[in-house]
Amino acid sequence: MDFLDVGEVGLALVAAPDGDREPLLVSPPGCSIRLAADRAFGAEVPRRELTGIATAREWARQGLGSALLPDFALEPDLASGALVRLGFEAPALALRLVWLRGREPVLRDVLYAMSAPTGA
């Protein structure tokens, strides 16, 4: 296998300003955000499994729990006050693209090009 580390994504625990803090709203097993939530909070925190991060964000906006979400999905909601950061230092999530060596060499070139800094 070949891989390319493409950087980190910040994570934040968020909820509606006056909404419930429990349960923890999580994406399905196998999702990198879910794995980060499982690692950060362990099994003892009550959780509700949803279909993905967009659904978790919307449920959190409605005051139905808190969610650990990537920063890029939160900017408008944090700016408008629909969501607030909770007092939890979330670890960054490292992103890595992985593909089988020898398969789709053109795809490898596209992935490298997509991950290159702007202007590089």
Structure write-up:
The protein is α/β, with parallel strands linked by helices and 120 residues long. The chain is 30% helix and 32% strand. The protein has helices at residues 32-41, 53-61, 75-80, 105-115; strands at residues 2-9, 11-15, 20-26, 47-49, 64-70, 84-85, 93-99. The strands form two sheets. Strands 4-3-5-2-6 form a five-stranded mixed β-sheet. Strand 3 (20-26), helix 1 and strand 4 (47-49) form a beta-alpha-beta unit. The longest helix has 11 residues, at 105-115. The protein is elongated. The two termini are 25 Å apart. The mean pLDDT is 85.
Q: Helix and strand layout, with pairings?
A:
Blueprint (H helix, E strand, L loop, with lengths): L1 E8 L1 E5 L4 E7 L5 H10 L5 E3 L3 H9 L2 E7 L4 H6 L3 E2 L7 E7 L5 H11 L5
Parallel strand pairs: 3-4, 3-5
Antiparallel strand pairs: 1-7, 2-5, 2-6
Q: What value does the average pLDDT take?
A: 85
Structural class by secondary-structure content: alpha/beta
N-to-C span: 25 Å
The coarse silhouette is elongated
Provide tags for this entry.
120 residues, alpha/beta, 5-stranded mixed β-sheet, two-stranded antiparallel ribbon, 4 helices, 7 strands, 30% helix
